[in-house]
């Protein structure tokens, strides 16, 4: 019932910007942590940015100073502002949430299906 849907991916030139969005829907009691992962071709899925419920974010070293993660608690959404994009940022970006569904006492991880970001001239 709970779903995460990403949007905002696309083709952008090096040095450009994109803003990814992820909206969680369904019957949700509470969202504790929201994160962005990415998986580049031939590579393992890796954490890009994370933001817990206290709003204090953390980033992978490769994106520090370029990416900004934020949350909209009213919309159960998380965003990733990506600036100064590089070709090595090309990947499928996945939204992940650690949340507690309504009528469920267990916190679980949920994943979106991903949105493709391609950085190329």
Structural account:
Strands 2, 4, 5, 6, 9, 10 and 11 form a seven-stranded mixed β-sheet that branches. Strands 1-3-8-7 form a four-stranded antiparallel β-sheet, with no helix packed on it. The model has no long low-confidence stretch (mean pLDDT 96). By secondary structure, it is mainly beta. A hairpin with a 4-residue loop joins strand 7 and strand 8. The N and C termini lie far apart (40 Å). It has no helices and eleven strands.
Radius of gyration: 14 Å
Strand content: over 45%
Count the beta strands: 11
What would the average pLDDT be, to the nearest integer?
Answer: 96
Helical fraction: under 10%
Observed structural traits:
single chain, about 120 residues, mainly beta, seven-stranded mixed sheet, four-stranded antiparallel sheet, 11 strands, elongated
Q: What is the topological layout?
A:
Layout: E1 3-7, E2 10-12, E3 18-25, E4 28-39, E5 46-52, E6 58-59, E7 67-72, E8 77-82, E9 91-101, E10 108-111, E11 115-119
Parallel strand pairs: 2-11
Antiparallel strand pairs: 1-3, 3-8, 4-5, 4-9, 5-6, 7-8, 9-10, 9-11
Please give a quick description of this structure.
The protein is mainly beta and 121 residues long. Strands 2, 4, 5, 6, 9, 10 and 11 form a 7-stranded mixed β-sheet that branches. A 4-stranded antiparallel β-sheet has the order 1-3-8-7, with no helix packed on it. The chain has strands at residues 3-7, 10-12, 18-25, 28-39, 46-52, 58-59, 67-72, 77-82, 91-101, 108-111, 115-119.
């Amino acid at each position: 019932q709970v779903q995460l849907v990403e949007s905002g991916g696309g083709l952008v030139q090096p040095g450009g910007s994109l803003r990814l969005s992820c909206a969680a829907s369904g019957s949700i009691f509470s969202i504790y942590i929201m994160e962005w992962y990415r998986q580049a071709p031939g590579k393992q899925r890796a954490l890009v940015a994370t933001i817990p419920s206290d709003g204090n974010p953390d980033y992978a070293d490769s994106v520090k100073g370029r990416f900004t993660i934020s949350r909209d608690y009213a919309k159960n959404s998380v965003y990733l502002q990506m600036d100064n994009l590089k070709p090595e940022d090309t990947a499928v970006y996945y939204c992940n949430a650690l949340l507690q569904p309504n009528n469920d006492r267990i916190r679980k991880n949920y994943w979106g299906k991903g949105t493709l970001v391609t950085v190329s001239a």
